[in-house]
Design goal:
Bound molecules: zinc ion
Largest sheet: 5 strands, parallel
Shape: globular
Number of helices: 10
Order of helices and strands: EHEHEHEHEHHHHHH
Helix content: 40-55%
Distance between the termini: 19 Å
Strand content: 5-15%
Length: about 260
């Protein structure tokens, strides 16, 4: 796996000329995730899943390149929390289209948008960008949190249910057990562990309003900014979540585009 921003141009050219190149664009956002987690969590998580998916793709003959993460997105639900930043969906769409067109110009015709942020407008903007890019010869997949709920399930939910330690896994969400676990594994230095000890579970909220984004996170969570139980999270669970979700994402890509072996 190569990181585009860390290599010189001849290496990019070499990868493109193999005809087996695949580029992953991690997409996150700057958004509150409770008092215990960093605002960049969704970006960092998308990067962890990209790194976890890459070996599975390379095993099947792909040359994997990871583009610099798009750290900004649409984050309307949590906009009242200090530090949350939000783009207009059209801005996000344009950025992804323009990055994708630049990559295509240099021979990267297989592009994967790996999104770590769940927001309906954000996911729709990414899917709109995918559709625009696919009007040319570029092939684009949206994985992770996707506009197509089946892709989200196949990316993040398949094979992980048994990992939850929470007494109410059906009420886990933003900033809860899953995201806390991934953070404790993938970027532990950025987690306020002493704060987690003081957080009581937030199970008593309107799940439908949360999922459908009809109410803001601040009023939905009584100002706490998390949903579920941060205390149920662990680095061990996070390690398994990253491994399983990375493999899930690689499988979605391989199912769509097949292996490159022998070509
Ligand atoms: Zn998140």
């Amino acid at each position: 796996m190569q990181r585009l921003a860390e290599i010189p141009f001849p290496e990019v050219q070499r990868m493109a000329r193999t005809g087996r190149a695949l580029v992953i664009l991690p997409v996150g956002v700057v958004e509150e995730h409770g008092a215990h987690l960093p605002l960049g969590l969704d970006s960092f998580a998308a990067e962890a899943y990209a790194a976890s998916a890459a070996p599975h793709l390379e095993e099947q003959g792909y040359e994997v390149m990871v583009a610099p993460t798009l750290n900004y997105g649409v984050a309307r639900s949590a906009i009242d929390f200090p530090g949350t930043l939000s783009l207009e969906p059209a801005t996000l769409k344009s950025m992804v289209v323009e990055i994708g067109r630049s990559l295509a110009r240099h021979g990267f015709a297989r592009q994967v948008i790996l999104n770590g942020h769940r927001d309906l407008h954000h996911m729709k903007a990414l899917d709109d960008a995918r559709a625009i890019l696919e009007e040319s010869t570029v092939r684009v997949l949206c994985v992770g949190f996707a506009h197509d709920p089946e892709v989200t399930t196949a990316s993040y939910r398949d094979g992980v249910k048994h990992l939850y330690q929470s007494p109410r896994p059906d009420r886990e969400g933003h900033g809860g057990e899953s995201e806390t676990s991934v953070a404790l594994h993938a970027f532990p230095a950025l987690v306020k562990k002493e704060v987690i000890e003081q957080l009581s579970p937030n199970f008593d909220y309107d799940v439908d309003a949360f999922r459908n984004e009809t109410q803001d996170y601040g009023s939905l969570s009584g100002g706490r900014g998390y949903f579920g139980s941060p205390q149920a999270g662990s680095a061990e669970t996070g390690k398994q979540l990253v491994a399983i979700r990375g493999r899930n994402i690689a499988q979605i890509i391989l199912k769509a585009w097949g292996p490159q072996k022998g070509s």
